[in-house]
Automatic annotation (TrEMBL), chain A:
PROSITE patterns in alphabetical order: PROKAR_LIPOPROTEIN (PS51257)
Main location: membrane
InterPro entries the UniProt entry points to: GerAC_N (IPR057336), Spore_GerAC-like (IPR008844), Spore_GerAC-like_C (IPR046953), Spore_GerAC_C_sf (IPR038501)
Domain Spore germination GerAC-like C-terminal stretches: 203-356
Keyword Signal annotated: yes
Similarity comment text for this entry: Belongs to the GerABKC lipoprotein family.
Organism, scientific name: Cohnella lubricantis
Protein name in UniProt: Ger(X)C family spore germination protein
Record keywords, A-Z: Germination, Lipoprotein, Membrane, Palmitate, Signal
Any Gene Ontology biological process: spore germination
TrEMBL record, chain B:
Record keywords, A-Z: Membrane, Transmembrane, Transmembrane helix
Record's signal peptide: none
Name of protein: Uncharacterized protein
Organism the protein comes from: Cohnella lubricantis
Lineage start: Bacteria, Bacillati, Bacillota, Bacilli, Bacillales
Highest taxon, organism lineage: Bacteria
Transmembrane segments: 20-40, 61-84, 96-114, 126-144, 203-225, 245-265, 296-313, 325-348
Automatic annotation (TrEMBL), chain C:
Protein name: Spore germination protein
Any one annotated GO CC term: membrane
Organism: Cohnella lubricantis
Organism domain of life: Bacteria
GO BP, sorted A to Z: spore germination
Length: 359, 366, 441
């Protein structure tokens, strides 16, 4: 044992390389990729680098942004190393932002760089920057304690949990990119003066952008596809407005096999009323539940038809169809051919657990 | 136990061509072999495979057999060391020299493998118990993750009708090879030892088989799952511990994984060493040796040197190719060995009317 | 007689020799007053000889009193004198009177292995007292005590104690073999004996356990272990031991079940921490900063910003400081000790961090290491952990995270490989086929 250690020590002394102190590294917290339109150097890669400091307080986070244009992402990163004084480290890069133009007409194969690098987390968040990625990188929220922390908290659901925010992990994006019968979804991050606005979602087919949903539709999508709680359902009621906060939501998809498949989406939700005209619930508890359900169903149906007409399938109905029929390649071809005519039916069961604290 | 390296990859490659059926077949074949073997070894308490063969077969037959089994063990150990070094190198220190990494692994395994059988067994038990909670936690995490696509798994399960491929069956039966340890560790078993809970073998094996195969598909989809080299590491990387001290599950996974790999290599080195030693003429099987004899060190050092030689020849692709062939070879050897032990048991029973093993209570972790 | 004794001893100044005369008869007397109990000498010899002298009675007393033994052999005299006996010659015959001065007449308080609610009495530095304490606690007819002397000069008395029904024969044989081999001039402490009995000089972990608690000795005896009592040392050596014995404090048996378990669990966690934390720090800050979550990595990064040298030098500096501090507070007299702790711990730590010599995270790491090292109930085991920590640090310097994992693997294998007097050191499922005489509980 002892001798083994001595030998080990001696041999290890020959090594000594491969290490780099933590303070000799520059952490990339956010990476942005934009489309330049220049065929020679189509990618503009921007990195947001963390400058850490001893004191940790709100607003003390400082970052540095480096940008370069290059024919591929890997080359861009190599080139960027010449711009900074410390080793670039992607180990903590948890947010990747793709420019809207890139998504609109980029080449998705170039993105395989993300999937291939070992130090890039597969649980990194991916989003679309509007109008472009660089402008999103430039935002420095006041409240940030650690560089880049604002986006981490938003997407990781550790901080805010908004039903308008769709979270897409890198591995999920790759999966959807390759999967038959399931298409990628990306949240849209818009830069405001000192903060981000993430309340839209962008739907892609296998190669490029097809549709951007507005905030209301985004919420509906998030509720039905991701079963996002802490959302709300609202409808006008008499002269007031009823807002139901949804605590729990469960969805269940059934696909009836036929010449033209019928997709039945059953939604079960429960929650408490947050706003309603006084005494409304007392009078017509069941009625309100039913009306809310009906309204929600029709909204979701509209959304589903809109998505279908755009030719994308973010819900993964195609995959579910294959799963229920245990289908093979021919089945999928059939599904693809009939998808534009697929009919949707949404059934919603609303359960109001109570009117909140007041009657 | 050490399943993560090659098996899922081979299975996933065949996922549209009968991997599911192969899995089912493997569960049947594997548990059958395991149970039969366990039963056979029970007939010879306190004896390892070399002694059994020596006793019942002529020297000319038994020696090459033992040597051949030893070779199988050894090559298995070498493959795992190499693949493990690659994985660790890629995920922990990509800039580091590969041979340096190999060096520390080989040193550790050399040290561990050259211990006495009893020590190795103790170490296996302790380490297994240490890893089990973490391993189970990761499994729990994978199955409860919201983003696992059960649809994708069902789609793949739909390909159950395809006939199994030999390659996949061979790979999947590897899961059940745990009983192979009995070849050496049977020496430690007291007379009357009975492996309790034998019905657990198919159950555990089946669940592990399904886990290793289906979970990556659930995470990476039916098509995307193909593109990853280090399938399970990437799968583990697809999970987050929201409130964990260590945020990325992949590091927990690598922790468990490396300890399991080291255990496996220790095991293979040790068994191969014992087998080779059994080829010597004046050899006495001993479970307890202290201090460790020089021959142990020398034989293990040879294994270490071979690992280095293999590493210098191999790269990712060649390694995959070699491990595939190894798995297939191992499968054949296993079936062959089972037949031989069965014959021996039959002969032995005929010779010395049945000895009824009764009433042992010792139950080891395996 | 006096002349012979004086001649052999070279007439030392502290030897008292006298020819006593009470008017009827004379008696020669010699002894070392420093080694004898003067009260006993007075009560046992002087009073019957002088005030109440009755020749018949006195003769009867010499022959039948337990304290008096007939010592006709001249060669023995010196040995007897040196052990603290009084030699007396009466009517031409030489008797020896046992009047060894006892320094300890009461069990002491526990010092090293303090206990909250368990017995507070500890062993003393007197062999007979210790034997009494153990007999008292382990009051069984099967208890065997064997006597033995070791050390050419010190001639230290050793008692081997075990329960003859329960003892592990294999270990007993091993112990006897090893005891035969022990050759030393001076045997002063049980730790020394333990080292001489141990596997080899380079073992990192102790294979015997030293304890000052008689209740612990009794418990171990009951489990079939063997105890060694060394005269002049308040620690008994227990063997064979298992890894888990070192992490077990007597209090665990006196507390409610769950509390005891939880505390043992904490102890194991503490052991792990104190072993791996400095190396983890090195691994994380030099190789794998992505191991921990972002926010933590950034804090480490930020706190290390001012430190001018690599992390492992920082670790070595701090570890050296803390080791020095521990050493100092053990060696220093108690009242100065607390000052040293204050100066070292509070002031130096604070100043070093402010001066940018070490990062603030490192200070926390160091203190956690030190504190959790104290959690280990056995001091020789905690020394082992302290030493092992450096091995971890060194491997992590060269291999980072992987080094730590591999080192922990090697440590476990090494522990499993160790044997304490033929018994496995670390094993979960003990095969109970090997020793039929052994009864596990």
């Amino acid at each position: 044992m002892f001798k083994a250690f001595v030998v080990l020590l001696i041999c290890s002394l020959l090594a000594g390389c491969g290490m780099k102190d933590i303070d000799k590294r520059f952490y990339v917290v956010t990476t942005g990729v934009d489309w330049t339109g220049n065929p020679e150097k189509p990618f503009r890669v921007s990195l947001r680098l963390a400058i850490t400091s001893n004191k940790v307080e709100s607003g003390s986070s400082r970052t540095q942004i480096q940008t370069v244009e290059a024919p591929s992402i890997a080359e861009a990163v190599r080139h960027l190393k010449a711009f900074v004084d410390k080793e670039l480290d992607f180990g903590h890069c948890r947010v990747f932002i793709l420019g809207k133009d890139l998504v609109a007409n980029g080449n998705p194969d170039a993105m395989s760089w993300f999937a291939r690098r070992r130090d890039i987390q597969k649980v990194a968040f991916v989003g679309v920057g509007e109008p472009d990625a660089l402008s999103v990188l430039k935002v420095t929220p006041e409240s940030e304690r650690f560089p880049g922390n604002a986006l981490f908290l938003t997407f990781g659901n550790e901080g805010t949990e908004s039903s308008y925010t769709v979270t897409t992990y890198l591995f999920d994006l790759t999966r959807r990119h390759f999967e038959e019968g399931m298409d990628p979804v990306l949240p849209v991050i818009r830069s405001l003066d000192k903060t981000y606005q993430i309340d839209r979602v962008l739907l892609m087919d296998k190669a490029r952008m097809r549709l951007i949903l507005n905030p209301d539709e985004t919420q509906l999508y998030n509720m039905t596809a991701n079963e996002a709680g802490k959302s709300e359902v609202k409808m006008p009621y008499r002269d007031g407005r009823i807002v139901l906060t949804v605590n729990q939501i469960r969805t269940h998809t059934d696909i009836a096999i036929g010449e033209v498949p019928l997709v039945t989406l059953k939604v079960y939700m429960s929650g408490i009323l947050e706003e309603s005209p006084p005494e409304a619930l007392e009078n017509d508890w069941n009625g309100i539940e039913r009306q809310l359900g009906k309204r929600f169903s029709s909204e979701v149906e509209d959304l589903l038809y809109k998505i279908r007409d755009a030719g994308v399938d973010p819900y993964g109905f195609g995959l579910h169809y294959l799963a229920t029929t245990f289908g093979n390649k021919q089945d999928f071809a059939h599904w693809k051919s009939v998808y534009p005519e697929v009919r949707f039916k949404v059934v919603t069961h609303v359960k109001i657990t109570g009117p909140g604290v007041v009657r | 136990m050490n399943i993560m390296l090659f098996v899922p990859h081979i299975l996933v490659k065949d996922r549209f061509d009968g991997a599911v059926m192969s899995l089912l077949a493997a569960i049947a074949i594997g548990s059958l072999i395991a149970i039969v073997n366990a039963w056979c070894f029970q007939q010879f308490p306190q004896m390892g495979l070399p002694e059994i063969l020596d006793q019942h077969l002529p020297k000319v037959l038994s020696l090459p057999l033992i040597a051949f089994t030893a070779l199988t063990w050894m090559s298995g150990g070498i493959f795992v060391v190499y693949s493990f070094t690659r994985t660790m190198g890629i995920f922990f220190n990509p800039e580091m020299n590969e041979y340096l990494f190999l060096f520390i692994m080989v040193m550790a395994c050399l040290f561990a493998g050259s211990r006495s059988s009893r020590s190795v067994q103790f170490a296996l038990e302790v380490l297994l118990l240490l890893c089990a909670p973490l391993g189970l936690f990761i499994l729990f995490k994978t199955t409860t993750d919201r983003l696992v696509s059960w649809d994708a798994m069902r789609v793949i399960a739909g390909y159950v009708r395809h006939p199994p491929s030999f390659r996949s069956v061979a790979a999947a039966t590897f899961l059940f090879s745990g009983y192979l340890n009995m070849q050496i560790f049977n020496r430690l078993n007291p007379p009357g030892f009975r492996l309790k809970h034998r019905w657990l073998i198919p159950l555990l094996g089946a669940s592990f088989a399904f886990f290793t195969f289906f979970i990556p598909i659930g995470f990476h989809g039916t098509i995307g799952v193909d593109q990853y080299m280090y399938l399970w590491s990437v799968t583990a990387d697809s999970m987050v511990l929201k409130y964990g001290f260590v945020q990325r599950v992949v590091y927990l996974f690598l922790l468990v994984f490396s300890i399991l790999s080291l255990m496996f290599v220790m095991n293979t080195y040790h068994c191969a060493m014992e087998m080779f030693k059994a080829c010597w003429i004046q050899y006495q099987a001993k479970a307890e040796e202290s201090p460790v004899p020089k021959s142990n060190w020398i034989i293990c050092a040879i294994f270490g040197a071979l690992s280095f030689a293999y590493a210098s020849w191999s790269n990712d692709q060649k390694n995959q190719w070699a491990t595939e062939w190894w798995l297939i070879g191992r499968f054949c050897v296993e079936i062959f060995a089972t037949c031989i032990t069965l014959i021996i048991v039959y002969l032995a029973r005929k010779k010395t009317k049945v000895r009824a093993p009764r009433g042992g209570t010792a139950n080891y972790g395996k | 007689m006096i002349e012979e004794v004086k001649a052999k001893l070279g007439n030392p100044a502290d030897l008292t020799t006298e020819i006593m005369d009470n008017g009827y008869t004379t008696m020669e007397l010699c002894f070392f007053p420093s080694m004898c109990d003067s009260h006993q000498v007075k009560d046992g010899i002087l009073i019957p000889f002088s005030y109440r002298f009755d020749p018949d009675e006195f003769r009867r007393m010499l022959r039948s009193d337990l304290d008096f033994t007939y010592a006709p052999n001249q060669d023995e005299w010196i040995d007897l004198l040196l052990q603290g006996c009084v030699l007396l010659q009466y009517e031409g015959k030489v008797y020896c009177f046992d009047a060894i001065r006892k320094l300890q007449t009461q069990p002491e308080d526990t010092e090293v292995e303090a206990s909250l609610q368990g017995p507070q009495s500890a062993m003393t530095e007197d062999l007979d007292m210790n034997t009494y304490l153990i007999r008292l606690r382990y009051n069984s007819p099967t208890l065997v005590i064997r006597k033995l002397q070791k050390g050419e000069i010190s001639r230290t008395r050793i008692n081997i104690i075990y329960d003859r029904d329960k003892v592990n024969r294999q270990s007993l044989e091993e112990l006897e073999k090893r005891l035969d081999k022990v050759k030393t001039k001076l045997l002063q402490a049980s730790g020394q004996l333990a080292m001489l009995l141990g596997n080899n000089r380079y073992t990192i972990f102790p294979v015997t356990l030293q304890t000052e608690r008689p209740d612990r000795v009794a418990q171990f005896l009951n489990r079939g272990k063997i105890g060694l009592l060394v005269d002049g040392s308040r620690f008994a050596i227990m063997l064979p031991v298992r890894f888990f014995d070192f992490m077990h404090a007597m209090d665990d048996d006196y507390e409610p079940f769950w509390m005891g378990r939880v505390i043992i669990l904490f102890r194991y966690i503490g052991m792990m921490l104190s072993m791996t934390l400095p190396s983890l720090y090195i691994a994380v800050s030099m190789y794998n900063p992505e191991f921990f979550r972002v926010q933590l990595a950034f804090s480490i990064d930020g706190s290390r910003a001012a430190v001018p040298y690599p992390a492992f030098i920082e670790v070595f500096i701090m570890l050296f400081m803390i080791e020095a501090l521990i050493e100092a507070s053990i060696r220093l007299p108690r009242f100065v000790g607390s000052t040293a702790a204050t100066v070292g711990g509070l002031i130096l730590g604070q100043a070093a961090q402010q001066a940018g010599l070490v990062s603030s995270i490192m200070i926390i790491v160091t203190s956690v290491v030190a504190i959790s090292n104290f959690v280990i109930p056995n001091s020789s085991f905690s020394y082992s952990i302290r030493a092992l920590k450096y091995v971890f640090v060194v491997t992590s310097i060269f291999y980072g995270m992987v080094g730590i994992i591999v080192m922990s693997f090697i440590t476990v294998v090494y522990l499993c490989n160790l044997r304490s007097f033929g018994q496995p050191y670390l094993a979960l499922f003990l095969p109970n086929d090997k020793q039929p005489s052994r009864r596990t509980e």
